[in-house]
Amino acid sequence: QVQLVESGGGLVQAGGSLRLSCAASGRIFSIDTMGWYRQVPGKERELVATITSGLSTNYSDAVKGRFTISRDNAKNTVYLQMNSLKPEDTANYYCNARAKSLRFGSYRDVWGQGTLVTVSS
Length: 121
Prior knowledge:
Elements: E1 2-7, E2 10-13, E3 18-26, E4 30-39, E5 46-51, E6 57-59, E7 67-72, E8 77-82, E9 91-100, E10 108-111, E11 115-120
Parallel strand pairs: 2-11
Antiparallel strand pairs: 1-3, 3-8, 4-5, 4-9, 5-6, 7-8, 9-10, 9-11
């Protein structure tokens, strides 16, 4: 099975920066798209950014121009560089990967445990 472990969350002032990391481990044959999502209590989880294995990226309008997603395929790791943070970016951030453990298996969605980002005004 594939596991995801996030790191890098914390408390930062508005206008500051944070970098999140998410490393995949376990029985990995292939990872397709990786991404970051966020959720505020009482609201639905929303897309932040995704990146394909070919390094094509997609961002939500809320973070476009401020956040940058990147990926190291050799390390099975995805990063999220967050700049110009705003209080409304406060949320639990979750890493996601579409991965398969066997050559002839199916891709499954795997989620990390989440890391809290708090932006103070």
